[in-house]
Design a protein that fits this description.
The complex is a heterodimer of chains A (114) and B (117). In chain A, strands 2, 4, 5, 6, 9, 10 and 11 form a seven-stranded mixed sheet that branches. A four-stranded antiparallel sheet of chain A has the order 1-3-8-7, with no helix packed on it. Chain A contains no helices and eleven strands. Chain A starts with a strand and ends with a strand. By secondary structure, chain A is mainly beta. The chains are: A mainly beta (114), B mainly beta (117). Chains A and B meet through strand 5, strand 9 and strand 10 of A and strand 5, strand 6, strand 10 and strand 11 of B.
Chain lengths: 114, 117
């Protein structure tokens, strides 16, 4: 089954404790993205990747890092999480550029930073 | 800069009513792409439709239809004979051109549709 998986689905952590949210897709898509969803703000892109070892900032990259060492994986790293990073996070992949093609989204990761 | 406005925060209807979700966009590009995504209560995001700026044909898919009007910069979504399963948050999104803007879609804030039985 074609899908995007994310782990963990739920995470409660404390300020400053480094964490990684994993994302994996099995569709051989070149393009992957991370978004955060906050009430009343819709989805905002954090980072995107055009291919292995090629990543770039989206609209709200501050406080986040990503890496793309393999085509299928695109982890999101919070080196020192803060309460304003409490949010619902989505990973997405697409066969074409995120703004041109259909995006396939993971199930979401609800992160709470205390 | 690109912008998407979904002025309706929440819409409440009774089953079998028709409902239209509005989406107004702003862009300076002549080439751009518009999307609608659905987020049901379970939380996942599901792609519904994609339109490019050169294709103004309206689209119908079952009970769903989309009206793209460049003259008013709108890409409205209509559900005919709504059902409870249509209850969800619907997002309109825009991305510009074939260049850098294409990597970063702009999403509207979403419209929450509640369909009562």
């Amino acid at each position: 089954e074609a899908q995007v998986t994310q782990n963990p689905r739920y995470l409660i952590t404390v300020t400053g404790k480094k964490l990684t949210v994993t994302c994996s897709q099995n569709m051989n898509h070149e393009y992957m993205s991370w978004y955060r969803q906050d009430p009343g703000l819709g989805l905002r892109q954090i980072y995107y990747s055009m291919n292995v070892e090629v990543t770039d900032k989206g609209d709200v990259p501050e406080g986040y890092k990503v890496s793309r060492k393999e085509k299928r994986n695109f982890p999101l790293i919070l080196e020192s999480p803060s309460p304003n990073q409490t949010s619902l996070y989505f990973c997405a992949s697409s066969r074409r550029l995120a703004g041109i093609g259909e995006q396939f989204f993971g199930p979401g990761t609800r992160l709470t930073v205390l | 800069a690109q912008k998407v406005t979904q002025a309706q925060t929440e819409i409440s209807v009774v089953e079998k009513e028709d409902v239209t979700l509005d989406c107004v966009y702003e862009t300076r590009d002549t080439t751009y792409y518009l999307f609608w995504y659905k987020q049901p209560p379970s939380g996942e995001l599901v792609f519904l439709i994609r339109r490019n700026s050169f294709d103004e044909q309206n689209e119908i898919s079952g009970r769903y239809s989309w009206n793209f009007q460049k003259s008013t910069s709108s890409f409205n979504f209509t559900i005919t004979a709504s059902q409870v399963v249509d209850s969800a948050v619907y997002f309109c999104a825009l991305s510009e051109g074939e260049g850098g803007g294409s990597y970063i879609p702009t999403f509207g804030r979403g419209t929450s549709l509640i369909v009562h039985p």
